[in-house]
Amino acid sequence: MNSMLSKFIRHSCSSSSSKPSRLTKKECISILQRCNSMRQLKQIHCQILMSSLQHNKDIMDEILVFCTRPQTGDLYHAERVFETLIDPSLFVYNLMIKSFTKDRQPEKAILLFKSMRNASMSPDNFTFPLVFKALGELRAMAEGRKVHGFTVKTGFEFDPYVRSSLMDMYAEMGAIEATRALFDEMPERSVVSWNVLIASYIKCRKFEDAITAFLRMEKSGVELNEATLVTTLSACVSLGDLEMGKKVHGFIENRGIKGSIPLNNALLDMYTKCGCMSMARRLFDEMPSKDVISWTSIVSGYANSGLFEQAEKLIEEMPYKNAKEILPFLASLLGACRTHRNVQMVKKLEKRITKLESSLAANRWEDVTEVRRRTKDQGIKKTLGCSSIEVNGIICEFLAGDASYPEKTDIYSVLSSLSRAFHLEEEKEVDMRMIEMV
């Protein structure tokens, strides 16, 4: 900590100091910019009040910037400071709306936007995307359409950033037709707008449309980026479309695109989840850099394919050696072994996990709690199972645990009938074996 800040903190708001030194605006901003904790900031804020500088916009902006930093700030304190401002600037409104949106408080973000409008302040192209994101989280279609109309009136309708965020808002609400209409109306389409369209189809579970959009984008001449490829690969995973996944991989190699860790992980995820472990292993071995996601994908891929020995061998080869790091991988493997009813491997893994948890508990019980949480999140909790069948040219998709199908009653009735029929057949087989034994 520099001497100026140290000296200030020692004297500000101290009971032993009968006459705290008053700060100038320049000194105050300089100190705020070097502040590194909320404790320090509150002491500085106290001295600002003593120096009657609480109405200086530049100083209050600095306080709010610090308070809204996710790592060191305090959004609650920022909110209290904001309430004291007489005439907040557009910058401050945008800062607070952004912070509430990032902090998953969309209701407060929208209320602040309304307050801004009531103050006759005009939003800009930074405001609207933040508001659309908040509205998307709230699924507030009526309000979203109103704000959409407002962008038309204010001339921001075709701003690329605003347009893309508007497309994303409608996709969050499941209104993919509105997203597509906005895309089609665009005079020029950038890589960002194409990426938003592909991602929107995926959000609305229109995976085939996402692939079609990717192919159209490729033909349009717009330069694809890493986000395009990662998103498209996720559509291939959802469809179980190994051939399309291979085409995307071929596109990457033909264009000489150097795979970053996220892109290589997306390819690895596609191969493992499509059951092509030979290509997955080849890709994994060729990856110049790997992270925990890379190792999780390959281990889970082997485990879910029933190749438990290979999965266990990879766990031994991992660069992660302590119990806290290894346990989530073992839990993932354990879950797959239970699914495949590999009793011998289940018993072996359970013993090993118990031993590792015991060694961890000897050091810190908090670590055990954290590992168990990670175990649940990373190992046992899985993406919902999805299957699809084609009936009379129509693809019907089913999600595990989803009981929202219109034909639910008929489906369960047929399944019940089949189940009873299977039980009857089993009983007949048992009866025949008993007769043969007599």
TrEMBL record:
Keywords: Repeat. GO terms for biological process: RNA modification. This is Pentatricopeptide repeat-containing protein. It comes from Dioscorea zingiberensis. It comes from the Eukaryota. PPR repeats lie at residues 89-123, 190-224, 291-325. Residues 1-21 are annotated as: Disordered. Residues 12-21 have a biased composition (Low complexity). GO terms for molecular function: RNA binding.
